[in-house]
Amino acid sequence: MQEKIKQLRQLTGAKPRANLGFYPTPFYKLERLSEQLGINLYIKRDDFSGMSLFGGNKVRKLEYLLGDALDQGCETVFTYGATQSNHAMQTATACRRLGLHPILYLNAYVNPDENDIRANMLLDRILGAEMHVIQSEPGETEQQTEQRCFQTGKEHVARMRQAGHKCYDVPMGGSSHVGAAAFADGYAELMEQCQQAGVSPRYVFCATGSGGTQAGLVAGHHLVGDRAQVVGIAVSRKNDEYEAYCAELCNKALAWLGSDARVSAADFTVDRGYYLPGYEQPSEAASDAIRLLARTEGLMLDPVYTGKAFAGLLDWVKQGKVKPGDTVVFWHTGGATALFSEKEIVGSINREG
């Protein structure tokens, strides 16, 4: 496996990359919670990716995405997300570091209060990002509002390009083949740390939203050839084609890296059982998971992504899908700024029980 990790590192190392994060991110065992659950539970702290105190896993993708943007001579970067998007905020942060102009198109799942701007939106304002908030219209579904947000942003990109500006268009969550490739490299990093710790994971759990993180992790797993199963816990509604979409994204990342390897939808495990009542809508299971990790290990999760993903992991243990004594890695993707967002997103985390 060591030789395969080396080969994967050579593939990713040949691509343009901006120096933004702090790697490798920490990896260690959660001793108290492992004893409580009867498993060997490790955590991959990609919430420590950097480059600011408000970091998270998107920095990994942005190293490759903005490295590609700089390589193409771009001056402006567009991206998309919810008003409290971790990715959008981190894109603005990275752009400022690199001297690029960030333009954000933000879909209002929860309407922000202009008199009380919070969390990632507050950081976006401090960073001076150009923000366009797309409000939902009467009778419009969340998906329709999201598509209108994308379309409006892409029309803006087209106008700027026509005016002679070089723009780099980053999809929601940074989930292009370039962004996904970053997590193939991240998987190699994890396996190096597992070897150093003398462990061989049976499962690697992560939150999955726009798909790029899980696609990259599966690409890395496929190239390394270890025994782990990558489990994505969906944090929003996914249609029946989601696994096929992730596989296509994974294959494009593999091809971009110069690998002949390919995967199929069958290589993706996506559990849709924990996202309700919906994206950016809190659940009691996620709130319980956040409190549990905080009170046993002093670590914070968020109500949108990692809280729901960790709730899924805990339920897999409870159901016996994860067996006693299994070695499990939880990929902490960050996003704790959501704990300071609107009450509609935070939910009931603050109760004492």
Count the DSSP helices: 12
> What is Rg?
19 Å
Query: Can you list the strand order of the major beta sheet?
Result: 1-2-10-7-8-9
Unreliable sequence segments: none
- From the spread of the alpha carbons, the general shape counts as globular
Q: Which strand-content bin applies to the residues?
A: 5-15%
Largest sheet: 6 strands, mixed
Helix content: 40-55%
By secondary-structure content and strand pairing, the structural class works out as alpha/beta
- The H-and-E topology, N to C, reads as HEHEHEHEHEHEHEHEHEHHEH
N/C terminus separation: 46 Å
Query: Overall mean pLDDT score?
Result: 95
Number of strands: 10
Key terms for this structure?
alpha/beta; 4-stranded parallel sheet; 45% helix; 353 residues; 10 strands; 12 helices; 6-stranded mixed sheet
Folded structure, characterized:
The protein has helices spanning 2-13, 31-37, 58-71, 86-98, 119-127, 142-162, 177-197, 212-224, 242-257, 284-297, 306-319, 343-346, and strands at 27-29, 40-45, 76-82, 101-107, 130-134, 167-169, 203-208, 229-234, 269-271, 327-332. It is an alpha/beta fold. Strand 3, helix 4 and strand 4 (101-107) form a beta-alpha-beta unit. Helix 3 packs across helix 4 (86-98) and helix 10 crosses helix 11 (306-319). The longest helix is centred in the middle third of the chain and has 21 residues, at 142-162.
